[in-house]
Amino acid sequence: MPRAPLGRLVLALSLGSPSGSFAQVPNQKPAPNGVASEVTGTWRGHSVCAVKGSPCHDEVNVYRVSEIVGRPGWLLVTGIKIVSGQEIVMGTGEWKYDAEKRILESETLGAALRFSAQDTTLVGSFTLRDSTIYRRVYLKKAT
User: Fold this and answer.
1) Burial letters for 115-128: b for 16+ Cβ neighbours within 10 Å, e otherwise?
2) pTM over 0.70
């Protein structure tokens, strides 16, 4: 899968990998300092496949989110899936957080992963470029 220049983290769908992979894309305008703290921490939950007959599998997920010193509005996110009780890191990189809209997101040419922050939950979807929702993700804040 081609990689773009350094910037924010994206979750890019590879047709051979239903859970996706992380890549980088150029930076966009960040949110103001300190506003991302509401989404920092460890989030646990699950994701469910939305496309019947696809190679996608429902998963148990853990996302670890932390602020990046000197990069206001950008968060370091590690996406993990749990398989047979073992954590498998899907990727780590920088995501954009829009504090006004309470949206945490990662995009690529082929897909976008967006979470809406709602108190102690992150609810989101993995959407393909053609607007097909491939996966829905439901997370609760653990720490």
Assistant:
1) bebeeeebebbbbe
2) yes
| Cβ neighbours around 142 below 10 Å, total | 13
User: In this model, does residue 140 exceed pLDDT 50?
Assistant: yes
Residue count (the chain): 143
Closest CA to 20 of 9, 30, 31, 29: 9
Computed over every residue of the chain, the mean pLDDT equals 80
What b/e sequence results for 11-39 when a residue is b if at least 16 CB atoms lie within 10 Å of its CB, and e otherwise?
Answer: bbbeeeebbbbbbbbeeeebbeeebbeeb
Q: What share of the chain is helix, strand, coil (3-state, %, to 5)?
A: 5, 60, 35
pLDDT digits (tens, 9 = 90+) for 67-85: 998 998 999 999 999 999 9
Per-residue DSSP letters for 28-68? -PPPPTTGGGGG-EEEEEEEEE-STTSS---EEEEEEEEE-
Taking the C-alpha atoms of residue 120 and residue 91, their distance in angstroms, rounded to an integer, is 23
CA 116 to chain centre: 11
